[in-house]
Amino acid sequence: MPLDRISTAAHDGATGPATSDLPPLPDALRQRLADCRSLPSLPAAAARVINIARSPEPRLADYARAIEQDPALTLRLLSMANSAFYSRGGNPVTNGLDAVSRIGLDATLTAALSFGLPRPGSSEALEYEYLCQRAVIAASAAQELAQHLCPHEAGQLFTTALLQDIGILALEAVDGERYTDHIPGIRQHQSLVDAELALYGCDHALVGAWLALSWGVPGPMAAGIIASHGPLIDGDPHCLCLRLSCRIADCWLAADSASAFSILLRQLASLASLDIVMLMTVMQDLQHRLPSLAKLFEITCPPAIDSLHLLAEAKELLFEQNLRMTMRLAEQQRELEALHASHVALDEQHRTDHLTQLANRTWLEKRLDQHFECARAADQPLSVIFIDLDHFKRINDRYGHRFGDEVLIHFAAALNNMVRESDIAGRYGGEEFLVIMPNTRRQYASLLADRIREYLATQPLARADGEALHVTASIGIADLEDGDFDCAASLVDAADQAMYGVKRGGRDGVGHYEEPTNPAS
Ligand SMILES: Nc1nc2c(ncn2[C@@H]2O[C@H](COP(=O)(O)OP(=O)(O)OP(=O)(O)O)[C@@H](O)[C@H]2O)c(=O)[nH]1
């Protein structure tokens, strides 16, 4: 139901009730409500208090004057102000002004409205006592919940919850036995709402809001009455307090309240804004407050609930909640680890040459850039070795490409075993390999190049037609000290040039880069 259509005009000091701004009542019902002479009404003193509440700057003295015109209401307020809840050991108050200043404006308005708790119509089927008990429990529960969820609205929520079922009395006044005959009783609230919708096209919440506005209660309170039947969801604490308050009242008054509360607690376990410990505090405070409230509202005190059973249930729920949370945490941890593993795998894939599992060219170039900058900044040595397997085309042509692949894989594994932990060996392309040797001068790079050649000379990289296949390599070495290199790529080019020198010289050897001599010098 669109709450934004409820007018707040009454709250803002407009002269008449803004019933025209309510979501529309079905025509036939509206007419009957307008014609009904026995609708629940407020006593004159309560109406005066509401009028003062609607004024722009309500003053305590105005409230006190309005109240003192009605001795019964004055007595009610004095007894409220002197009750243990409000007096907190202070001196007894004896006049309206002191009573109003002790209990505050919100509670005064509440008292005035509750004083006007409408009387029942003719039908006994309505269980008026039950309705009053339900209203008082809901009002008190809404207020207690609000102390935790939206403290500044606690006073208003008490009154809204108190009036939330006022529409039931209005419908009974309008339709008498037809209403009570067609509803399934007032203890099953959802079935009651369904029956009202079928009978009138709207439920008692809308009728109640309409009636409350016609008394002049503030618009937001009327909106709250309509909202009171909605689902229990996180988000709006005001709505949650109201909606939960009547469910608590239903459970409190249920024939088997222990099971009713168990079911409710389990429904609530999924709400993030409610924690079970807070709910238990609310229930205990409620249990404690109800006898004095019942006295104040002159109703039979609702039966006490089995708080031991409720606590046991809550404990079990807490345990389940913790268990669920621990399981969720463990699951999240597993997901995180899986994500991390797949990230590592992806990263690995991104860096690795898929055939030889050595670093690929992109990664080699990236790492060389870093080492080049570091070596230059710290004035440290750096060498690279460029290795090109000789006559590789012949191997492919003779034994096939797949065989050639096996040779590359074998050589890559051998190369990886020969380099130090701090070196980076990778496949630069085709049958070309590069080794980055941080903090290494050409003499040590030379030793590695010799070891590679020695390995190739002694270890066959494959067997073909029953014969060992030996492969040779041409190796070029460049040291940072060998020239005036302006970037990492120029160092690789230098090693490449040195390797080509070896190729030109007949292959199977090691060459060092030499800076071309300037013919002019
Ligand atoms: N099996 C296999 N062959 C490759 C791969 N990448 C490049 N090659 C081959 O390597 C051979 C390189 O041939 P060339 O550049 O002519 O050099 P080469 O035959 O080794 O001769 P030199 O370098 O002059 O000694 C070509 O036949 C390429 O097809 C690969 O991933 N697998």
TrEMBL record:
Protein's name in the database: diguanylate cyclase
Annotated CDD domains: GGDEF
GO molecular function, one term: diguanylate cyclase activity
Co-factor(s): Mg(2+)
Domain GGDEF: 380-515
NCBIfam families found in the cross-reference section: GGDEF
Region (Disordered): 1-24
Reactions it catalyzes: 2 GTP = 3',3'-c-di-GMP + 2 diphosphate
